[in-house]
Structure to design on (39 residues):
């Protein structure tokens, strides 16, 4: 998924699909683990 798609979603120009939401959620979960020090 490109950042341009994320930018459009953030601006409300495009609604995310269910698959895109899952990808975003998975990415955020990974980032949260990294922030918590689980490397």
């Amino acid at each position: 998924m490109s950042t341009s798609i994320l930018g459009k979603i953030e601006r409300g120009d495009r609604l995310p699909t269910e698959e895109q939401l899952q990808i975003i959620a998975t990415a955020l979960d990974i980032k949260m683990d990294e922030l918590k020090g689980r490397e």
Summary: The chain is about 70% helix and 0% strand. The chain has one domain: 3-35. The mean pLDDT is 78.
